[in-house]
Design the sequence.
């Protein structure tokens, strides 16, 4: 084990590698830098070799489609939740966020906290004005019949 310290405080621990020219990465350590230099997300070696569940790629794609570069940065913020939570808890929150259509850092953070604390989520979708709203009206029989009439053809 290699332990790195600064001012009497341990700032990193890495497993030691004895293989020649081999590197051991912990992608979580690179996330603060990548968050500042967001274009490095696809070019840095540690995240590129990270084997995350497929829902993370779906989340990233949706975030980037909605907000482009800001969506990529928000995706890295979701990954930074791994600094506090384990991968299984975060994965469950990401899956739940995708099911709910609440694709955003705040929603994922809320959902992971609820998952860990074993309490139901209370998402107020009014704080997500960019999410599309569904407007479902009560259908009347007359409306349906109008569709079936010859006038509609």
Sequence:
């Amino acid at each position: 084990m290699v332990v790195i310290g600064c001012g009497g405080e341990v700032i990193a621990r890495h497993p030691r590698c004895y293989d020649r020219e081999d590197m051991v990465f912990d992608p979580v350590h690179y996330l603060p830098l990548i968050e500042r230099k967001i274009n490095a997300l696809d070019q840095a070696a540690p995240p590129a070799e990270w084997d995350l569940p497929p829902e993370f790629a779906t989340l990233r794609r949706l975030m980037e489609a909605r907000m482009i570069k800001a969506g990529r940065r928000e995706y890295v913020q979701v990954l930074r939740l791994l600094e506090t939570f384990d991968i299984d808890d975060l994965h469950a929150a990401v899956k739940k966020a995708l099911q709910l259509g609440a694709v955003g850092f705040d929603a994922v953070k809320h959902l992971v906290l609820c998952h860990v604390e074993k309490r139901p989520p209370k998402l107020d979708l009014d704080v997500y004005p960019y999410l599309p709203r569904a407007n479902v009206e009560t259908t009347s029989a007359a409306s349906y019949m109008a569709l079936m009439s010859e006038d509609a053809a």
Remarks:
- The first helix runs from residue 27 to 36.
- Residues 2-131 form one domain.
- The helical segments are 27-36, 45-48, 54-67, 69-80, 87-100, 105-117, 141-148.
